[in-house]
Write a structure and sequence with these properties.
Elements (H helix, E strand, L loop, with lengths): L2 E9 L4 E9 L2 E7 L8 E4 L1 E6 L1 E2 L2 E2 L4 H12 L3 E9 L3 H14 L9 E2 L2 E4 L28 H4 L2 E6 L6 H10 L3 E4 L6 H10 L1 E4 L16 H7 L5 E4 L10 H7 L5 E4 L12 E4 L2 E6 L2 E4 L12 H10 L4 H7 L2 H7 L15 E4 L5 E6 L2 E2 L2
Parallel strand pairs: 1-4, 5-8, 8-9, 8-10, 10-11, 11-12, 12-13, 14-15
Antiparallel strand pairs: 1-2, 2-3, 4-19, 6-7, 16-17, 17-18, 19-20, 20-21
Helix pairs in contact: 5-6
């Protein structure tokens, strides 16, 4: 049996408290308050990224070696669990992606972030709100026998669907009945169509405000309904480009604190400094911390990781307890994962340690410190 101690200011479910975690093997077995730890670093649950397309040159859809690289490099960013995320592609390609991830998961590296399944963004989305998704591959009607999608289902935790497209509500119900958390997004839905999407089984919202109808005072759409439906989760890309920081306070005030999910939506070249990559067959330009379709101002995902998102929302005024939940336990609750994401006895010892500027100092996955 391996035993260890992690001292510092513990970010618990409802407060920050000086103390120590007692870890045995891969599990937290004790949480001990101790005021003498009050000058130590902040200790938080490991981050969970449920919408990430790649990192450090590794594309989620590029095969097992890329998934290995993605897993290992995400762990170094404090992400202890994740969903490799596919993009709009032919159904046959998505089926291959699904099978690849399923076969890889039992072999995922022990020194990397743990996969929890996978996420698919598209292809059943609105052409009008496709963003950086390849227009030749978008399917703005569900014009297939849904059984054709059965090869995708095992391990599929989240899938983006535009509720207003012909057949969209039926697809949402079909996925819901198979245990998939449907995310409404890339959608031009009216408010009524958005409500129908959540009522049919939509549980979350793909990168709130981006690629969706908004809060026009005469034509409210998906973003408005997502904000006012207390049961709906919402994803936020907190890079300051996808959603102006002036709106973050609105999101934080409108949503119950357990329904905000920070995501990276990171592209494969995030963290590399490379200036151009491709996404679903289209060229993407990356300049500093902003990625756009080549030759346009259309955003095409982000190039940040969740540690940056945490720093950004806290700097904007979100308290550390809420920010920690948005980067860990909220996403896990959406997925129904109950063995991690909280600093409490019996939970997996997935832990990040940060300084007073919320910059990573150390990362622990399952009781083992990463290199």
């Amino acid at each position: 049996m391996t035993r260890g101690i992690v001292d510092g200011r513990l970010v618990l479910r409802d407060r920050v408290e000086p103390g120590r975690l007692v870890v045995e093997d891969d599990t937290i077995v004790g949480v001990e308050p101790d005021d003498t730890c009050g000058s130590g670093p902040l200790v938080m649950p490991g981050f969970v990224d449920v919408h990430v397309h790649g990192w450090a040159g590794h594309d989620a859809m590029a095969g097992p070696a890329a998934l290995d690289g993605m897993s290992r490099t995400l762990l170094r960013q404090g992400v202890t669990s994740f969903l490799p995320t596919g993009v709009t592609s032919p159904i046959a390609d998505l089926a291959r992606f699904a099978e690849t991830v399923r076969a890889w998961m039992p072999l995922a590296p022990a020194d990397g972030s743990r996969p929890l399944g996978f996420n698919i963004e598209g292809p059943f989305i609105s052409d009008a709100k496709r963003g950086a998704h390849n227009p030749s591959l978008v399917r703005s009607t569900v014009d297939i026998d849904l059984e054709t999608l059965e090869p995708l289902v095992e391990g599929l935790r989240i899938m983006t669907v535009a509720p207003e497209i012909p057949g969209g509500l039926g697809l949402i119900r079909w996925l819901r009945d198979r245990g998939v958390a449907v995310s409404l997004g890339h959608s031009a839905a009216t408010a009524a169509e958005a409500r129908a999407g959540y009522a049919a089984g939509g549980r979350t919202t793909t990168h709130l405000f981006n690629g969706m109808s908004g809060i026009d005072h005469r034509a409210p759409g998906l973003a408005l309904v997502a904000l006012t439906d207390d049961d709906a989760y919402v994803e936020l890309i907190a890079d300051g480009h996808h959603v102006d920081a002036e709106l973050w306070a609105l999101i934080e005030r409108a949503k119950p604190p357990d329904r905000l999910v920070l995501i990276s939506d990171a592209l494969s070249m995030s963290g590399t400094g490379v200036g151009r990559t491709t996404l679903s067959g289209m060229d993407i330009d990356i300049h500093e911390d902003r990625a756009t379709l080549a030759g346009s101002d259309t955003l095409a995902g982000s190039v940040i990781a969740l540690d940056t998102a945490i720093r950004n929302v806290i700097a904007d005024g979100l308290d550390v307890v809420a920010a920690s939940a948005a980067a860990s336990s909220n996403a896990l609750a959406l997925l129904g994962v109950t063995d991690r994401g909280i600093l409490a006895p019996g939970m997996l010892a997935d832990v990040v340690v940060v300084d007073d500027s919320y910059r990573l100092l150390r990362v622990m996955r399952g009781g083992t410190w990463s290199a």
